[in-house]
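Researcher: Good morning. I'm working through a list of sequences from a screen, and I'd like to move beyond sequence-only analysis. For each chain I'm collecting a predicted structure so we can compare shapes side by side. This is the next one on the list. No need for commentary yet; just the structure.
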Amino acid sequence: MAQTMTQQNSVSGQPDSNDLLSARRTLSTEIEGLTALSHSLNGEFVKAIEIIQAMKEKGRGRLIVAGIGKSGHVARKISATLASTATPSYYIHPGEASHGDLGMITEDDVIILLSYSGNNAELSDMIAYAGRFNIPLISMTGNPESPLAQHSNIALILPRIPEACPNGLAPTTSTTQMIALGDAIAIALLERTGLTAEQFRVWHPGGKLGQKLRKVSDMMVKGDDLPFVSSDTLMSDALITLSSKNLGSVIAVDDQGKLIGIVTDGDLKRHMGPDLLQKPVADIMTKGPRTITPDLLAVKALDIMVGSAASPITSLVVTNEDKTVVGLIRIQELLKAGLV
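Model: Good morning. Structure tokens for this chain:
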């Protein structure tokens, strides 16, 4: 089955290896499968979304996803994606369902069963259970004439595109279609819900994704740790505050705690001179510095800082809408958290 290396690599000008030719052929076949899937979507997909959305609005049901073999692995992934995007979901193994786990499924739930052939005997007990208790059943299959499709309330039919496997045996194109269709379901539901990035963080508190979804209020210095001074404070005293708070700056506020200005290391360098210590903060500070509100994502603060290439910013004053200072967020802490 080996093929001769006749195709030229557009980058190196050298012949591609058989491995590269195989990889590109696989991807082309799977892309064809996804394109056909996109074109095949119709009102049945919308009905499936409406059934699941109605379940969610009741606030009691879960979306049960199941499959056997490679479809089972895909079902686990789909269920995990749904659960992480605000659709309560979990995976049930059909074999375990036949031995007691059917009791985990309630009449408030919706079931999605995955089987490309739609003829898996292992799914029969779940199909019968759904029918007995009038539980909505959505199928994902490539065979509209199969028992699974015929006994489903909604049958999402996968276009019959050849598997990328040269023997037509290993599930490849079909499982790619299933994964993509599961993603389409999850995102359609997410967009119906209007899930925001801040709400998304509730399901992703750990890892780099969780860090990127943290708010400014989660990462800012606040309270007694803030280096407050008044505009008439002498720089000799301001430097003591700067040193004791160790944040690289002092924040000038009025009697109501509203922002007047900030003194940073850069301000000190620009005004360095023999009379610096006798000057008031008002003569040294930067008036109207860049600020950010505590409800924004921390990555927005990083964007502001690194986006000021002409005049680098290493910290931002955090204020409420009335300019009352509530915190200070520093680039060092953002970089430590991996927000890059």
